[in-house]
Amino acid sequence: MWSFGIIVESLKKWSCICPCATQLWGRAGRLRLAENVEYMFGVVGVPVIEVAMAAQAAGIKYVGMRNEQAACYAASAIGYLTGRPAVCLVVSGPGLIHALGGMANANVNCWPVVVIGGSSDQNQETTGAFQEFPQVEACRLYSKFTARPSSLVAIPAVIEKAVRSSTFGRPGACYVDIPGDMVNARVDKSHVRQVTCCPPPPVSLAPPTEVLKAVTLIKQAQRPLLILGKGAAYGRAESEVCELVEGCGLPFLPMPMGKGVVPDQHPHCVSSARSRALLYADVVVLLGARLNWMLHFGFPPRFNTHVKIIQVDLCAEEMGNNVRPAVALLGDIRSVVTQVLEVFRKDPWSFPADSEWWAGLRHKMAANAEMSKALALAPSALLNYYSAFLHISELLPPDCVIVSEGANTMDIGRTMIPNRLPRHRLDAGTFGTMGVGLGFAIAAAMLERSRSAPRRVVCVEGDSAFGFSGMEVETMCRFKLPVVIIVINNNGIYSGLDADTWAQLANMGDLTTLAPPVTLLPDARYDQMMTAFGGRGFLVRTAEELRLSLQESLRDWLHPSLINVLIDPASDRKQQDFPWLTRSNL
Question: Taking the complete model, does pTM exceed 0.85, yes or no?
């Protein structure tokens, strides 16, 4: 048996669950069966071409990408959206190095992915072999598990452990190294070491005494707040979290990819009063969210000095990072929230809707909504972020998958484009990675294609962010993925220059010493990149053109589209109560 056949057979086999290994998923008593690895993304070459061909022969969908980094982003997005790892297949040396960014992003985001990399022949190590690189050692920094099979017969055991490790505990990236001479070797199938199928991730519950402490603390709170992270989305906890919000009358604040766990339009969503909610809350319940830079570490002045934290997480090492929790509930988020609900069902309680806390939050939400509306409707010859997003939000289907990246594009879009469903928003994430958008969109579109009633995938990009992986529009055209890309083009990173000012600078001398570092080429025709590969491209300068092009793009299910929206290069976001991350004087 060829060794590449063993690799693929292992991927198909060890990612499934034997009937005897099924177990109850959560407290709801539902049986959950993992499915086969269905998707492989990559860039092929020596020595992994045969692996990709064998994968296709085995029924795995192989999606050839234009860069290994985007391929790894796509594979990791499949892991987040489905809870099952996809595979990123890369060649040796530079190919693997290109994928490291995707591995690091998956690991920081806690998304399962398995990367399989070809490497130089074992008998050529230390000789300066073609693309020789210490791949196993390099990947240890970016993964949960890294290994090279010691022999052909060990391949199934290593693949099984990689798949299992990617989903058990805190999910993340895993790497399997396959030397070139191992890819094309043959072995008697009867000698291959057989391994039992891996079960689904074990589900753990929090200690009942700690659950009671948490419930007591919530009931005693004068200003409670739930914070919903992407861990709640990954854990499929939307039904339980929604019951907690509505049953107890609690305000909630979704993190970017926690949006949709409870719909953004829900009356208890306080996203538009984020600063006030964080600053004055006296009890904060973290549901799959971490007190990292995205939540300002839980420190004053963004948080109340005396805030009490109830932390729900499946990773023990996360408990107490930056702020020691008053109550730590270690376990599966869906199951732990169910434990909390069981206590409230026995002793019903609801936070008063007429409290001062709710009144203050609603007042701030209304004021911020008016400010955003004023910015969107401000008379101007050019579109700005707010006016563009006002029209986009009015036309997008309510069930579409939104992919977004960029600086102001992502931050403003998050507040103006609502999510109604869980796992329907993908963005730069915990690592703040730019360049993820098109890989994420390709992964989401592949999944939607398999549905009986596919939903639209809309990718909203800043012009700088689009540039990182813009060639993936060819991948979209090749596979006829009807992704709608909207590039918010302000001619730069954060801000740019108009064409006249750029021309004046060019006439003054060397642009490398005169052009501001944040600037890009004014009015770049990104739309023509899409048309060059057979997709549809639109250049937009006005609100009417934006609406017409978006409506036309959404009607077309046969081709990808790119809408190049030229906005005022000086457009900016509204004044913030606190600086967001950067202290640049720009």
Answer: yes
